[in-house]
Amino acid sequence: MNLPGTRPAKITELARVQDRMTFVYIERAVISREDGAITSEDGHGTVHIPAASLGALLLGPGTTVSQQAMVLLAESGSTVVWVGERGVRYYAHGRSLARSTRLLEAQAEVVTNRNKRLACARAMYAMRLPGEDVSRLTMQQLRGREGARVRKVYRHWATKSGVDWNKRDVQLDDFEATDTINQALSAAASCLYGVVYSVVVALGCAPGLGVVHTGNERSFVFDIADLYRAELSIPVAFEVVAQDVPDVAGAVRRAMRDRMFEMKLLERCVRDVQTLLLNAVGDVPAADGEDIVGADVIKLWDDRNEAVTGGRSYGWDTLDEPDDLDEEIS
């Protein structure tokens, strides 16, 4: 059957999430498509961006995007995130690259099982508290340890950079209402959340099903982003402010982009999400990328077996005996 429109790319033709660029932020430009690349045109000229190698495209204010550009990004598995001024606010995102629900099912199992959720939460805190035994700590104790650790990180970087530091102050309604260091921290956190969001949705996970965080549409994004905050967004923010640059938000975005590349954030993020969720449900983490490029196969849930093959008609010949139908209905 000949379907109209551009043929979707085969999953084997796409770059793995961990092998892609982290993110590109664009504002006040027209986003179009030219062959396999996304073009960004503004008063300074036109830039070509290979769609298949892009992790997340952050669209800021004043951007106009064509339908064909969105088609290319969607079929390339590149997540599009619509953000506010300076990339601080999140509004919406595009589609997932995942063809398998293995990680999503593991995530749902973790979140709905108290013991598995606690085990996964402890594993998350263990990654942030190296050398500490957290296997018997309650969530209250874990939060206390984490709070003390983060305060210590803030003090360390304030001393090292020479930047005045009082406390973390987030003003969601007015970015410029806070001091420079808090603006930098907000801008850095926004970049981190955008990239982690792109990995979470690319892997087919639910951004709102958090393990430690709950009740927010990005709860799981916050869970994963917190794994890297102390070594990534906090140091970058203090280092940029110490340089006394005129455009703090812009400088932070560029510094975050470079640091994410250096630390191979996408690769680490993919590995950490897979390991945390699959270990918590007693599954074996697959080789890098296997869960993302899972076969495009639909199965049917069965109450007697794990699943049965989809895409076929089940009739009398597939039942154990004719009375099974009445038994199922009753």
TrEMBL record:
Assembly information from the UniProt record: Homodimer, forms a heterotetramer with a Cas2 homodimer.
InterPro entries reported in the protein's UniProt record: Cas1, Cas1_I-E, CRISPR-assoc_Cas1, CRISPR-assoc_Cas1_C, CRISPR-assoc_Cas1_ECOLI, CRISPR-assoc_Cas1_N
Molecular functions (GO terms): endonuclease activity
Function: CRISPR (clustered regularly interspaced short palindromic repeat), is an adaptive immune system that provides protection against mobile genetic elements (viruses, transposable elements and conjugative plasmids). CRISPR clusters contain spacers, sequences complementary to antecedent mobile elements, and target invading nucleic acids. CRISPR clusters are transcribed and processed into CRISPR RNA (crRNA). Acts as a dsDNA endonuclease. Involved in the integration of spacer DNA into the CRISPR cassette.
The protein's Enzyme Commission number: 3.1.-.-
Keywords: Antiviral defense, DNA-binding, Endonuclease, Hydrolase, Magnesium, Manganese, Metal-binding, Nuclease
Protein name as annotated: CRISPR-associated endonuclease Cas1
Domain of life: Bacteria
Binding site for Mn(2+): E146, H213, D226
Alphabetized CDD domains for the sequence: Cas1_I-E (cd09719)
Keyword Isomerase part of the UniProt annotation: no
Organism: Myceligenerans pegani
Entry similarity comment: Belongs to the CRISPR-associated endonuclease Cas1 family.
NCBIfam families associated with the record: cas1, cas1_ECOLI
Cofactor: Mg(2+); Mn(2+)
Keyword Iron attached: no
